[in-house]
Amino acid sequence: MSDHPLVLPFDPAGLVIDRRRGLSQQLYEALRSRVLDGRLSSGTRLPATRDLAAMLALSRNSVVRAYDQLYAEGYIESRVGDGTYVSRLEKISTQLSTGLSRGLSTGLSTFHSKVTEDLSSNMLSSEPLERLKSNHLPPPKTGAPRAFRVGIPAFDLFPFNVWAKLQAGFWRNPDRVQLGYGDPAGEHGLRELISAYLRRSRGLSCTAEQIVITSGAQQAISLCAQLLLQPGDGVAVENPGYRAAGHTFAVAGGKVVGIPVDGEGMESARLEQLKECRLAYVTPAHQYPTGVTMSLARRLALLAWAERRDGWIIEDDYDGEYRYSGAPLAPLAALDRQGRVLYVGTFGKIAFPALRLGYLVLPSRLVQSFSQGRALAMRHSEVGTQCVMAEFMAQGHFQRHIRRMRKAALSRRNVLKAGWPVGVSGLGPMPEVAAGLHVKVDVDNFAREQELVAQAETVGVEVNPLSSYWLEDSPVPVDKRAGLVLGFAAVPEGEIAEALMRLRKAWRKG
Amino acid sequence: MSDHPLVLPFDPAGLVIDRRRGLSQQLYEALRSRVLDGRLSSGTRLPATRDLAAMLALSRNSVVRAYDQLYAEGYIESRVGDGTYVSRLEKISTQLSTGLSRGLSTGLSTFHSKVTEDLSSNMLSSEPLERLKSNHLPPPKTGAPRAFRVGIPAFDLFPFNVWAKLQAGFWRNPDRVQLGYGDPAGEHGLRELISAYLRRSRGLSCTAEQIVITSGAQQAISLCAQLLLQPGDGVAVENPGYRAAGHTFAVAGGKVVGIPVDGEGMESARLEQLKECRLAYVTPAHQYPTGVTMSLARRLALLAWAERRDGWIIEDDYDGEYRYSGAPLAPLAALDRQGRVLYVGTFGKIAFPALRLGYLVLPSRLVQSFSQGRALAMRHSEVGTQCVMAEFMAQGHFQRHIRRMRKAALSRRNVLKAGWPVGVSGLGPMPEVAAGLHVKVDVDNFAREQELVAQAETVGVEVNPLSSYWLEDSPVPVDKRAGLVLGFAAVPEGEIAEALMRLRKAWRKG
Question: Between B23 and which of A466, B62, B73, B494 could a Cys-Cys bridge form, CB atoms 3.0 to 4.6 Å apart?
Answer without folding.
Answer: B62
